[in-house]
Amino acid sequence: MRRFFKLMSLTMQGRMYYKASFFMNLVTPLLLLFGQFLLWGSLYGTRDGAALGSFSKTDMYAYLLIAFGINSLLTWSSENALSREIRSGMVTARRIRPVSFLAQSLADMCGNLLLQAIANVTAVCLGFLFLRATVTLPSLASFGLFCASLLLAVVLRMMLVSFFSLLCFFTTGHLGLTWTRTALMEFFSGALIPVALFPAWLQNFAYLLPFPLMLQVPAAIFLGQPLPMPVGLTYALQGAWILAFLGLHALLYGHIRKSATLAGG
Predict the structure, then answer these.
(1) Axis-axis angle for helices 140-166, 57-71 (nearest 10)
(2) Could you report the per-residue pLDDT of 152-171, keeping only the tens digit for each?
């Protein structure tokens, strides 16, 4: 664990070194959040404030804040660091370090995530403070259940990103894979539209995938909204997907180690 935390520290130092880029990465997601508030506010305005499905206007505003906080924990840059290294050849440095390949990938994302989490938590708390009259606030019990689900959701997302990044060993570019993964995550996780507002057949299909477990489920627990399964089962399902991606990562990386050749080595 000492090596893991050391790698996290190095990632955090590297990110903060470029101050302008660091600041822009922290504040840029706020612009998207502002746009979402304008969009959904206009939509509810055309309905005279009437609920959309199971979402009242106060529920939706709270959902937007929570979805923003969760979805932007990992930025485009942090999620694609490994993909870029694979295509550039710099990944050779990871392969010769005395730390497992997966641990290095997770440490790199955790280093970026912790810095972004400080900004996100601050923004979300300020949002709930200033909009307290127009947002749904969670109960203490719901908040505790939410924190446990959020932790599993973040680990699941990092495992999925690590697995998809390995696929870059078999491509001549990483942007196609990145855009595909991002599109799937943004749509089926509920980052763009809550999964609870999908048609019934699409909801059923979405919950067969791991993506709603990364955002929709924690947000629903936070708001105290009904889930398609008991809370305990959602935890188990999140854990099962984490183990599944862990196994897939091990199998794929084992194949890569046997097939890849280091130039000059």
Answers:
(1) 40
(2) 999 999 999 999 888 888 87
